[in-house]
């Protein structure tokens, strides 16, 4: 234990506490408990309780031993694919940010090939003996990225950390993790890449940005990847305190599909029974060979729509519903990817980070509050991901246009214009 130092889990503030593990200061997220050890009462932090209870009677430990040595690797990246000019520019800027230990935002449209863009920069870091973490808010994204990075870096030990992961070995030079797992680290990474930084729960959390900042070494590189930066990042750009690289084109050179809005007067009354306009579109889609990805606002609605589609299609084998608490979530997504399913009904958990080569996309009740501008842009980005099928229909079914819908379509058109499309 000589390499670990005991610290008080809470910092005293004038009007409460700060949890030293998750950074929580909100008084309503602290509670009192009776202690079996000292027979007294102690506050404990409810914000990070899923990782084990932290109270004033139990110490936290931080590593204060020698910093781990990660040996430099020759030719860490074995990926031999070709990048577009825009991808190459982003890749070179990332390498520069690693060398100069700076922050960098890569603002790249959905389907631009962000994963391939970071290969060179990560490879450069590993070749210098630096430790790298790529963190993302969504479990599905970690699962999808792991085989791709293992193929690109076959000689590098890679840990994949997320809730339910069987990989418990975090002592590797390259870590893939959900952003929640960053709570376990302090001053651990020379290069921290945060993918989908605008995604829930990261952008609505105070804890996760705190964890990300603490997980990086004091002298380090932080890379932000997103297609839809939130206002906080845009303000940094306006103040010129954050470097940015734009990638306005998809890797296959085709424009982003622009969503259409379809009015459904009877939407709320017929959601569970499927609105007439939605049924008509399913029958008359331009390319019936494409799979169908349907986004809905709630878990209950996902199951209701799935049941109605099974009834209408008289087939239970080609339709599935998936959501955050679904125990078969991973297998259903894989079946859809393998084209074993024709239709997948989902909540916003699949709005980003997953790639299906040939899908049409529908959003039922696109005016619901859960579908903000960023979510709708990401959802639209699920279509047209393959060079073999670079189009795909995207339809917003609604009973009244919302600002989010209008702004999402405007944002997509602006990116297409920036990419050279009229």
TrEMBL record:
SMART domains for this protein: DEXDc, HELICc
GO molecular function: 3'-5' DNA helicase activity; ATP binding; DNA binding; hydrolase activity
Domain Helicase ATP-binding: start-end pairs: 95-247
Keyword hit for Ion transport: no
Gene3D superfamilies (alphabetical): P-loop containing nucleotide triphosphate hydrolases (3.40.50.300)
Keyword match Repeat: no
Pfam (any one): Helicase_C
Source taxon at top rank: Bacteria
Helicase C-terminal domain residues: 266-422
Protein name: DEAD/DEAH box helicase
Organism: Radiobacillus deserti
């Amino acid at each position: 234990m000589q390499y670990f130092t005991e610290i008080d889990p809470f910092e005293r503030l004038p009007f409460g506490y700060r949890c030293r593990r998750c950074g929580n200061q909100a008084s309503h997220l602290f509670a009192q408990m009776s202690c079996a050890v000292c027979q007294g009462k102690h506050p404990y932090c409810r914000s990070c309780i899923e990782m084990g209870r932290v109270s004033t009677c139990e110490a936290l430990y931080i590593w204060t031993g020698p910093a781990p040595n990660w040996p430099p690797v020759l030719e860490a990246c074995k990926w031999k694919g070709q990048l577009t000019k825009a991808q190459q520019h982003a890749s070179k800027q990332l390498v520069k940010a690693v060398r100069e230990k700076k922050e960098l935002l890569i603002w790249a449209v959905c389907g631009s090939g962000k994963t391939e863009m970071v290969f060179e920069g990560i490879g450069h870091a590993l070749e210098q003996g630096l430790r790298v973490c790529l963190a993302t808010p969504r479990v599905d994204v970690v699962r999808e990225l792991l085989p791709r990075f293992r193929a690109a870096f076959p000689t590098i030990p890679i840990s994949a950390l997320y809730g339910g992961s069987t990989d418990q070995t975090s002592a590797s030079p390259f870590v893939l993790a959900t952003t929640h797992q960053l709570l376990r680290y302090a001053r651990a990474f020379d290069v921290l890449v945060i993918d989908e930084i605008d995604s829930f729960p990261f952008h609505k959390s105070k804890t996760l940005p705190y964890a990300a900042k603490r997980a990086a070494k004091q002298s380090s590189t932080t890379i932000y990847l997103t297609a839809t930066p939130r206002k906080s990042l845009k303000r940094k750009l306006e103040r010129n305190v954050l470097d940015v690289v734009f990638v306005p084109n998809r890797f296959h050179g085709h424009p982003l599909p622009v969503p259409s809005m379809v009015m459904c007067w009877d939407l709320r009354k017929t959601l569970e029974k499927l609105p007439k306009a939605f049924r008509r579109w399913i029958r008359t889609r331009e390319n019936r060979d494409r799979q169908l990805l349907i986004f809905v606002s709630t878990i209950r609605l996902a199951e209701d729509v799935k049941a109605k589609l099974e009834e209408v299609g008289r087939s239970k084998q080609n339709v599935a519903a998936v959501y955050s608490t679904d125990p078969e979530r991973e297998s259903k997504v894989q079946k859809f990817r393998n084209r074993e399913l024709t239709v997948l009904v989902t909540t916003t958990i699949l709005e980003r980070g997953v790639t299906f080569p040939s899908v049409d996309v529908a959003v039922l009740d696109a005016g619901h509050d859960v579908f903000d501008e960023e979510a709708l842009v990401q959802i639209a980005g699920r279509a047209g991901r393959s060079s073999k099928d670079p189009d795909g229909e995207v339809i917003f079914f609604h009973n009244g246009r919302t600002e989010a819908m209008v702004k999402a379509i405007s944002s997509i058109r602006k990116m297409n214009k920036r990419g050279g499309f009229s």
